[in-house]
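Continuing the series of single-chain predictions for the mutant panel. This is the parent chain; the variants come on the following pages.
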Amino acid sequence: MGAMPFSELFKTRKSRVADPAEAVADAVDAVVPAALVDHEKLALVEQLEASGASLFWSTDVAGRIAYISPSIPELLGTAAESLVGDPFQAHFAPADGEADGRSLGLKLAARKPFSNLTVACARDSVDLVLRLAGRPHFDPEGEFLGFRGTGLDVTAEFRGEAEAARLAKFDSLTGLANRHRMEQRIDSTLAAFRAAKRQTAILMLDLDRFKQVNDTLGHAAGDQLLQQVAERLQAVVAGRGEIGRLGGDEFQLLIPDMADRGELGELAKRIIAMISQPYSVEEGRCTIGCSVGIAIAPYDGVERDELTRAADLALYASKNGGRGQFRFYAADLEHEARLRKRMEEDLAQALEGGRFSLEYQPLATLEDNRVVGLEAQYVWEDEERGRVGPETFLPVAEGSRLIVPLGEWALRRACADALGWPDSLRVAVNVSPVQFFAAGFAAMVAEVIEQSGLDPARLELELRESILQGDPGAVDTTLSALFKLGVRLTLDEFGTGFTSLGYLRRAPFTAVKIGAGFFETSVRHEHGDMGMVRAIVALAGALGMETHATGVHSPALLEELRTLGVAGAQGFVFAEALPAAQVLEEIASGEWRLAPSDSGNQRASRRTVFRKVGVIHEGHYYEVTLRNLSRSGAMIQGLCDVPVGTEFVLDFAQGQLAVCTVMRAMDDTQGVEFEEPLVDDGAGGLCTRERASPYEIAAAGAPLPALPPTQAAGGEAKRSYPRFKLANGSAAQPLRKD
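Parent structure:
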């Protein structure tokens, strides 16, 4: 029987041996008789090396390279002689993903046969992956002489497997983690952090107006935009966490060791600002927006499902609040969603039933306190709710698009009212971004002006900065049409958005209005950030625009604004919004001037609220009423005989505890100053930077209805008595102690 051809024997052996390189070595041993002369054996080895079917190598006792197939140095870009004498592991290391992770040096030091060891070239510039097999070689006396082995070039196979593994974990379009990888990362992070009592934040992101890009510019443009969004997110996050694309226009961020809501809020604002900047794609330029929902472990959940659901609810709330916003999760968001739905229905009925009216807040010049304009403000008198503030129902109206018919009604009503005023008085009407981008908005304004007979120069439309972040073509077209009508255009709340200065330079605005947020007390200045106000006045002056201020609350602030060159102001320092009938009474007496005053007026920077909060003091828990709230302090009512200087802990619920000091005391009402200022909650409200862990609060003995009874602290209350009396005569609760 003739000898089996080498190629057939190699195929047979390869099918039975796991490692092809080892199969080659066995095949050589099988087909080469011992009597074959050395030069024929060498010729066969060289033929195998030249064909690429197998590579050969050997080391000395110390693991240094004694021989290596010439093709390997060629792939490394060097000569074989330069490798001889070098440690084998100096040039090769286990490739990424090796299960055992052991180095080639350890394999050689063990002096035992090995196979299926995948190694990669240690040089970054060379893409070479080998699968090695090796056997120790001994002399007749059993003395170890080194290793002899074979290898196969598996670079293409390895890279293909690595790419397949990458695609299983990462989004093919953006390169970000996909949904599966994000779930794994969140699960592993929460499990590790739960034991270490560390915090983790989850941010859910949804792109606003992305569908419009796909519909108008095509899916190829949409794909390019998503890639640019991914790049911008990576620039903002800058390695602080993991970013994933869950599909479509939905993204997710995992930020370990971050629970400071001030810091998270700033991160969300940067993300919204960055994503809202214009994009350039092959089909043209486009602009989108972004809404963000934030949840934090362990406060909002300790498992992935509950935490991501909390972030989703916060995202839903931010989108319903008008988009381009962020929201933190709160336990009442589900209740809020139900209330919002009911309010939408009630708003529609109120609009149909004519239950809205307008009031007008005067705008006075700072030169002579003369009233030159009146800003229309919505009033809704609801049968059940009573008087509902516009800050409460306007976001709901915007989210449901009821703001379009409501805004048209307000414009018609304001123009009709202004016809009964002197020609020197103009009327200002706020325009929602939803209104502005509604089809036919400019034509509707033209129709209202024509039908009312009002001089268009007396109509002032106040536009938010967020409007300028819309589609540039649509924005330019509408602004141009309004400008041609002859109406005045004011950029409202300037400095709170992200207006491009280049765009502002060519936009047809008559004035910019500085928002009340600039006038909140800061560490540097009692009246707020006057340096920014000075810069805005200078910028507006350079662009030929007037500067107005809103939310001005004191004569001292008014005087400083006058010194800086602000042209006009409105706020409690002059007057609150007045009913239309009272406006007619004021103008009937002749020229209308207002004397600045701070008597009996609320500070504009304080939000009027009426809700129950807790006060913790010396082991007792008092329930009081929160009257108003600002970043730096609050007014509470319900405690009697509280000395100035008393330190409290205010409990705003859901782990929000604020250390504060009583600065003023008036009967059963106290004005307190916070040890650390509050931060924006993303919904126009305020919240504490940090929250106490639920389990820490339970251990302290505070009332925690959200925790199971077994987690609340037990034990008997200490024998102590409350220092203060509650105005309603009820008793304070003692905090339980372990």
